[in-house]
Amino acid sequence: MLIPGSGGNTMRGGICPSGSCSSLYLGYIRAERYHAKAAINTDSPCRLNSHGSTLPFANSDRSFISVKTVIPLMNASHGSTSPRQRYTAMPRKIGHWRLEEGTGGTILNQVSGGPGAQHYFNASATTASWTVNTLPLITTDLSRTPVQVDLAPTVMGHLCIPVDPAWGYDGTSLVAACAPVDVAVRTLLGGPFDQPSGLMNDGIRSSGQLPGIEPYTSMGYDHRMKGGGEVMGPGVAQVTGPDAIVDWVVLEQRSGTDPSEVISTATFLLQRDGDVVGLNGSSVPRWPVVLGQHHLAVHHRNHAGVMTAMPLSFTAGAPMNIDLAEPATPVYGNEAASFVGDVRVLWPGDVNGDGTIRYSGASNDRDPVLAAIGGSIPTNTVSGYAPEDVNLDGLIRYAGAANDRDPILFTIGGSVPTAVRLVQVP
After folding, report:
1. For residue 409, is pLDDT > 80?
2. What is the pLDDT of residues 252-305, one digit of tens each?
3. Domain for residue 15, yes or no?
4. CA torsion sign, 342 to 343 to 348 to 353?
5. CA-to-CA distance for 426 and 261, rounded, in angstroms?
6. Domain boundary residue among 302, 319, 345?
7. Contacts for 83 with CB less than 8 Å, ≥ 6 apart
8. How many C-beta atoms surround the C-beta of residue 317 within 10 A?
9. Long-range pairs for 279-284 at CB < 8 Å and ≥24 separation?
């Protein structure tokens, strides 16, 4: 990000008001190449875009560059005599240079060592200065430095709004190309699945416990891009039959080269027949995604997630259809899901959400079910929207018919209680 000069002793955003800094910020470039040696004396005014000679911004009369971000360098009161307040160690590594205008579109690196001289920050407990260095510590390649014409397309890219060529934008978006894509997904959850009917039960909905807002944010799930905060449309919870809603699920777009990297998320509704639908309870989900080759994964709050084995092509204007309940659809990992009859269902029982389903031993998923019904009388039942309700019927049971303990035992093999099953989505 290029922070242009604004005149006087101020820096955009009010970081250095009134010519002094109680919290001083610097940008950094190629941060891995710089090493903070000590704390820095803050008993000096902060002067950006002025001809002041006070360190550490001597002669900073032009623009200030930060390719990645601006970071807190010092956090201490100006003029304080307390060593604890005066000196605060640098939390990150930094780099800086001053810019001058050249001819045409050229920007020159004009520093005390002459054009092209490289600088690093030399800091001690009482002094701070820029020192000319002959080693190539900082790149002067400004090809990724935003310029004014890049701002509008970059903002549009961040908002996932395609840029119409007719708008006449001259700049280039500095974020990955993004656009809303219709993504039809089908998946089945093993806990509520009923093989004879081929449908999942909708006990949570029919008992009035289905939340109207997606539950994952409150559970600590880390949404990406525009995911999180989705609200169910009016009347959706009153729909019955095969299209009745079972629960909320998260669709994840994951990197095609590193599947552990979640790029974009969105929360949608899951019908009894396995269709993932939009917030109106019927439409194909329209999801802002990063265009290109990426994996698609489904995440549920107490089932093992599943992901496509190979990256898929996310293309603007091209609808997608992924049937993860179809056994012929390749999925990532080893025994990532279960097969019940002629369909694939997600393994139930990751009650504590740690990515490993256990029936016994430390951090097992059975004990939370017992604790949820009181911990002492195994025949107790408790209603509620909770991860301990493994079969999603709206009641938590530890013993008896339709209990929530048996699906966990089934998931780990059914015979060796010490066995475990790992969620295959990385």
Report:
1. yes
2. 999 999 999 999 999 999 999 999 999 999 999 999 999 999 999 999 999 999
3. yes
4. positive
5. 9
6. 345
7. none
8. 9
9. 279/230, 279/231, 279/232, 279/233, 279/236, 280/233, 280/236, 281/232, 281/233, 281/235, 281/236, 281/239, 281/243, 281/245, 282/243, 284/182, 284/183, 284/184, 284/319
User: Does 167 reside within a domain?
Assistant: yes
- For 104, the domain range is 2-133
Residue type at 237? A
Cβ-contact 292, 175 below 8 angstroms: no
Residue 82 pairs in a beta bridge with none
- Number of other residues whose CB lies within 10 A of the CB of residue 135: 8
Q: How many CB atoms lie within 10 A of CB 303?
A: 30
**Total of domains in the chain:** 4
- 120 & 156 share domain: no
Q: What is the mean pLDDT of residues 223-252?
A: 97
Q: What is the SS3 assignment for 270? A: strand
Mean pLDDT check: name the lowest of 74-88, 271-285, 344-358, 368-382: 74-88
Q: Are 97 and 109 in contact (CB under 8 A)?
A: yes
Extract long-range pairs of 411-419: CB within 8 Å, 24+ residues apart. Answer: 411/190, 411/304, 411/338, 411/347, 411/348, 411/349, 411/357, 412/349, 412/357, 412/358, 412/359, 417/359, 417/360, 418/359, 418/360, 418/361, 419/359
**Diameter of the chain measured on Cα atoms:** 83
| 322 and 191 co-located in one domain | yes
pLDDT at 138: 43
Residue type, 121: F
Both structure tokens of 166: 């007719």
Q: Taking all residues of the chain, what is their mean pLDDT, rounded to a whole number? A: 75
Q: How far is 71 from 25, CA to CA, in rounded Å?
A: 5
Q: For the whole model, what pTM was predicted?
A: 0.67
Residue 138 inside a domain? The answer is no
CA 406, CA 361: separation in Å to the nearest integer?
16
Which pLDDT tens digit goes with each residue over 319-332? Answer: 999 999 999 999 99
Give the count of alpha carbons within 13 A of 317, CB side only.
1
Q: What is the pLDDT of residues 23-62, one digit of tens each?
A: 233 333 333 222 222 233 333 333 333 333 333 333 333 3
Residue 56, preceding bond cis, omega within 30 degrees?
yes
- Which of 377, 373, 357 shows the shortest CA–CA distance to 417? 357
* H-assigned helices in 181-338: 203-206
Per-residue pLDDT of 191-200, as tens digits, reads 999 999 999 9
Q: Which residue, of 105, 133, 161, is where some domain finishes?
A: 133
